[in-house]
Amino acid sequence: MEFFLDTANLDQIREVNDLGLLDGVTTNPTLMSREGGDWREQASLICDAVDGPVSLEVIGTTHEEMIKEAKDLVSFGPNVVVKIPMIPEGLKALKELTEREIKTNVTLVFSPSQALLAAKLGATYVSPFVGRLDGLGQSGMEAVDQMRTLFDNYAFNTKILVASVRHPMHVIESGLIGADVITLPYATIMQLMQHPLTDKGLAAFLADWEAFQAEQQ
Ligand code: E4P
């Protein structure tokens, strides 16, 4: 399973990259606006800092606007994946971008039927938002599971990129289902490596060793 970081923050990107855990980055207009400043400069720095796919999202809501923006976004680097919203105009743009061999990430996907349409039109990734579905009292992971079955039944190459992740169990469940990629907020990726028994165990090992060394003197 590939790990993407769901952020536009360069410090977080560099830190996770230094851990060797960074396979790619996803951004969205909210994450980009949180960083402030010149978004073009920020996008360019992110693309340079990441040795893997970087999703940059279009703002336009018509097919023509999305295509125009996509052409601009791909100029930021060879690793750019154009993020397109799951709306009818987005599907039109998706078809054209697939024909132009531009990589795409269909975002704001909440149902298996939406994922199926995106896969039929050749999306590189579909992003089911599991946390937002859970928040409505629906099962995000059940939707991902159905997407996996649909894609496998018809051998679609579209990758399932689990998004809107809220906690480590989303990561484990995604892995058990066989999702291709998961995009994680910085806090969740840090949570994955923590366990109180690890800290307690290490403290005990170090204390025992220190006592042993003191006895030797
Ligand atoms: C995905 O690419 C999105 O950026 C993201 O996962 C949205 O998640 P949220 O529900 O935390 O905003």
TrEMBL record:
<keyword id="KW-0963">Cytoplasm</keyword>
<comment type="pathway">
    <text>Carbohydrate degradation; pentose phosphate pathway; D-glyceraldehyde 3-phosphate and beta-D-fructose 6-phosphate from D-ribose 5-phosphate and D-xylulose 5-phosphate (non-oxidative stage): step 2/3.</text>
</comment>
<dbReference type="InterPro" id="IPR033919">
    <property type="entry name" value="TSA/FSA_arc/bac"/>
</dbReference>
<dbReference type="InterPro" id="IPR022999">
    <property type="entry name" value="Transaldolase_3B"/>
</dbReference>
<protein>
    <recommendedName>
        <fullName>Probable transaldolase</fullName>
        <ecNumber>2.2.1.2</ecNumber>
    </recommendedName>
</protein>
<comment type="function">
    <text>Transaldolase is important for the balance of metabolites in the pentose-phosphate pathway.</text>
</comment>
<dbReference type="InterPro" id="IPR013785">
    <property type="entry name" value="Aldolase_TIM"/>
</dbReference>
<dbReference type="InterPro" id="IPR018225">
    <property type="entry name" value="Transaldolase_AS"/>
</dbReference>
<keyword id="KW-0570">Pentose shunt</keyword>
<comment type="similarity">
    <text>Belongs to the transaldolase family. Type 3B subfamily.</text>
</comment>
<dbReference type="Pfam" id="PF00923">
    <property type="entry name" value="TAL_FSA"/>
</dbReference>
<dbReference type="InterPro" id="IPR004731">
    <property type="entry name" value="Transaldolase_3B/F6P_aldolase"/>
</dbReference>
<keyword id="KW-0808">Transferase</keyword>
<dbReference type="InterPro" id="IPR001585">
    <property type="entry name" value="TAL/FSA"/>
</dbReference>
<keyword id="KW-0704">Schiff base</keyword>
<feature type="active site" description="Schiff-base intermediate with substrate">
    <location>
        <position position="83"/>
    </location>
</feature>
